[in-house]
Amino acid sequence: MAVPKRRVSRSNTRSRRAQWKASAPQLVVCANPACRASHLPHRACPQCGQYGPRAGRRQVIDV
């Protein structure tokens, strides 16, 4: 296992960790005109279960 050669200073650690930022996920509006709820892209809508604009062929059903 690799071993660090030197101790990383507190300043360098804090400078590195300052770059960690939380960001809000980008949401998209459901393509179903009856739903129009916001959800994550490339995911089925949690409200209506539809994925994408083609409603008849892309309905997600819970088993």
UniProtKB/TrEMBL annotation:
GO molecular function: structural constituent of ribosome
Pfam families named among the record's database cross-references: Ribosomal_L32p
Biased amino acid composition, Basic residues: 1-19
InterPro entries reported in the protein's UniProt record: Ribosomal_bL32, Ribosomal_bL32_bact, Ribosomal_zn-bd
A GO CC term attached to the entry: large ribosomal subunit
Keyword Ribonucleoprotein recorded: yes
Keywords tagged on the record: Ribonucleoprotein, Ribosomal protein
Chain positions covered by the region annotation Disordered: 1-20
Signal sequence range: none
Domain of life: Bacteria
GO biological process: translation
Similarity comment: Belongs to the bacterial ribosomal protein bL32 family.
Name of the protein this chain belongs to: Large ribosomal subunit protein bL32
